[in-house]
């Protein structure tokens, strides 16, 4: 099927919201014969779509295959700028690498890079991120905020809130945040966030935010060393999720928070982040490059820095660390 006709056909079904569309209506929408409409319907079926056909009523999609593409993400997307430009690849080394290249070439704010599989996915501290095909969301977002460099860590926390809101919206699950960038469900990690910059000493050119979300993994699909510490939406709900729908929810919630942040600042985001934080008011061990610090987490400051109160009553600022929650 020609990509333009395919997009318009899927758009028509998306706008119909589950209602039947007659062959005549589709013929007029696509500008082709009813015989051609039938052929396009069969093409969709061959791609894994399930369609119901009822005499004198027409067609409707009853099931979509779990596949992601630029078309699938944009159909039904409810944003002004987030996700309106999509660079999709089946397999990449890293969506972050591609996003950095696109940002350097002038890609618009809100552009996203999405892959079905990463062979060299990475998280904080250059750690590998397991990114198999047809299971997760491997994505990078390009932003161009006019903010000082020291404020950019706030965007990691904002992203965490948007991701939690999206997961809640689509699945009903209630994740929690482990500072600074891990999203957890039932004590296991489901999402990681990686924030990188293209900047000069006094100016941010772009912020590249990478998101790795475990969506439809089963437990046995995780490497053995991850099975005790990682989970997925499918593992927690007992059923697979539509990855394109999850991305759409991420885009919608992120755009709303980000737009508000640029107008009203970090305080509203901070309050939301703290409401989801698993580590607040708990005793933590923070392992930093400078050493190990123990204390009670009392919050984050306006730069998103974790504040620990030690046994001696001293407030320690934690900029980067591996965090262990003491039980």
Describe this structure in words.
The chain is an alpha+beta fold and 327 residues long. The protein folds into three domains: 4-63, Arc Repressor Mutant, subunit A (Orthogonal Bundle), CATH 1.10.10.10; 70-276, BirA Bifunctional Protein, domain 2, CATH 3.30.930; 282-325, Roll (SH3 type barrels). The protein contains nine helices and 14 strands. It has helices at residues 3-16, 23-30, 34-46, 70-74, 95-104, 153-171, 233-237, 243-264, 267-276; strands at residues 50-54, 58-63, 86-92, 112-118, 136-143, 176-178, 182-185, 188-200, 203-214, 283-288, 291-300, 306-309, 315-318, 322-325. Helix 2 (23-30) packs across helix 3 (34-46) and helix 6 (153-171) crosses helix 9. The chain is elongated and about 80 Å long. It starts with a helix and ends with a strand.
Q: What is the share of helical residues?
A: 25-40%
Uncertain regions spanning at least 5 consecutive residues = none
CATH superfamily of the largest domain: Bira Bifunctional Protein, Domain 2
Provide the CATH top-level class of the largest domain. Answer: Alpha Beta
In CATH, the architecture of the largest domain is 2-Layer Sandwich
Please state how the strands of the largest beta sheet are arranged side by side: 3-4-5-9-8-7-6
Please compute the radius of gyration using only Cα atoms.
22 Å
Order of helices and strands: HHHEEHEHEEHEEEEHHHEEEEE
Shape descriptor reads elongated
Strand content: 25-35%
Quaternary class: single chain
Any idea of the CATH topology of the largest domain?
A: BirA Bifunctional Protein, domain 2
* First-residue to last-residue Cα separation: 57 Å
- List the domain count as a whole number: 3
Biggest β-sheet description: 7 strands, mixed
| Average pLDDT rating | 90
- Secondary-structure content class: alpha+beta
Secondary structure tally, helices: 9
GO molecular function: ATP binding; biotin--[biotin carboxyl-carrier protein] ligase activity; DNA binding; transferase activity
Domain BPL/LPL catalytic: 71-262
Protein name: Bifunctional ligase/repressor BirA
Family: Belongs to the biotin--protein ligase family.
